[in-house]
Amino acid sequence: MDNYDVIIIGGGLAGLTAAIQLAMEQYNILLLERYHYPHHKVCGEYVSNEVMPYLEDLGIVLPKTVSIDTLQLSTRKGKLLQTKLPLGGFGISRYAFDHALYKKALSVGVSINFETVKNVTFFKDSFNISTEKENGYSAKLVIGAYGKRSGLDKQLNRNFIGKNAPWLGVKAHYALPEFPDNLVALHNFEGGYGGLSKTETGAVNFCYLVSYKSFQVEKNIENFNSKVVAKNKFLKQFLENAEPLFTEPMSIAQVSFDRKQLVEGHILMCGDTAGLIHPLCGNGMAMAIHSAKIASERIDNYFKNSEYGRSNMESDYKKEWEKAFKRRLQTGRILQSILLNPVASSFLMGAIAKSPGFIRSLIKNTHGKPISL
Ligand SMILES: Cc1cc2nc3c(=O)[nH]c(=O)nc-3n(C[C@H](O)[C@H](O)[C@H](O)COP(=O)(O)OP(=O)(O)OC[C@H]3O[C@@H](n4cnc5c(N)ncnc54)[C@H](O)[C@@H]3O)c2cc1C
């Protein structure tokens, strides 16, 4: 059985970042990812600038990105507001972003196998991992970075897995050259909201989150777009003028925003596997990357300091994670419930229109400061 210092399950932004940082510290790292790169993912593709100092420190060179400094918000009745983003961000497709991190991970010596992890067990201070290829791996430590939901959550008997996860995510790229490069727009419609922003290819990403309750009335994406999404006049205009670049939109089901345990069966959970912030905050990718840094630092401490021990490492990870993300998750929950209520969202937009400082403070409460090194 192949033996590693750390095995990372899942090669999205959280898993790849942790792999890069730990391999740069000279640990023997195996990353297990089920799909080959590059591939598209359902995501709004707006990344907060807070990750930049950390990515630069890791020597990650991104392909050309689109700089975004302006946010537009509209209610389903067409009330529109625009504001500057305090920190701003950039647009990049997950196809390019994850691929750039994958190439960096290979260059710093991470072993990457394309296999789906089926089972993880912890026995006598060590982990055994099995995949569909019947390969067996062992490691001293494991990071769970396998995203929002996976068969592994069932195997680990995680508390959120039996609960209702009533959200659906839909995404596709479109050509609309006149869409401004520096804009991220968030438009509300019945039962959900959609984000528009440009990616590095010049394509506009349209990605939305909708409740099943609202979606199931129309049953398919085409009908839902024309009958519900297009009731928002800005989205109607977009859908009428933009040319679809994907044969079919992509979708993901059973998106859950429930609280999750941060350490489960001694596995340190990172990124969405630890908790997903409401997408309207545009901060999930930054949180995934930042949580990988927090986990990697605790792991480094564990290996370098024999008195530190597994239990301190786990409790420190939980403490640091809560300190970094608890407030923004709470603000995100409140904002999502307001946005999906027509009366409350109209009231909120009125309050924002009267006080530009108010929207900036809401944005600050759902984002972090530039990640300190
Ligand atoms: C509709 C929607 C819009 C969003 N828009 C934005 C946005 O604009 N900006 C933003 O910052 N965030 C956004 N987010 C959130 C963002 O997409 C996530 O927070 C981010 O992708 C988390 O990265 P991750 O590495 O934790 O997970 P992922 O990127 O999901 O990576 C997990 C990886 O694990 C792999 N995997 C799963 N199970 C296994 C297994 N058993 N074995 C091996 N591999 C496995 C998967 O293939 C995947 O590659 C949005 C989310 C949704 C739902």
How is this structure best described in words?
The chain is an alpha/beta fold. It has one domain (2-163, 256-366): 3-Layer(bba) Sandwich (FAD/NAD(P)-binding domain). It is 36% helix and 29% strand. The protein contains eleven helices and 17 strands. The strands form two sheets. Strands 3, 4, 5, 10, 11, 12, 13, 14 and 15 form a nine-stranded mixed β-sheet that branches. Strands 1, 2, 6, 7, 8, 9, 16 and 17 form an eight-stranded mixed β-sheet that branches. The longest helix has 31 residues, at 309-339. The chain starts with a strand and ends in a 7-residue tail after the last helix. The mean pLDDT is 93.
Low-confidence stretches: none
SSE string, helices as H and strands as E: EHEEHEEHEEEEHEEEEHHHEEEEHHHH
Estimate the global geometry from the Cα principal axes.
globular
Architecture (CATH level 2) name: 3-Layer(bba) Sandwich
What ligand molecules are bound, each kind once?
A: flavin-adenine dinucleotide
Instruction: Tell me the name of the CATH homologous superfamily.
Output: FAD/NAD(P)-binding domain
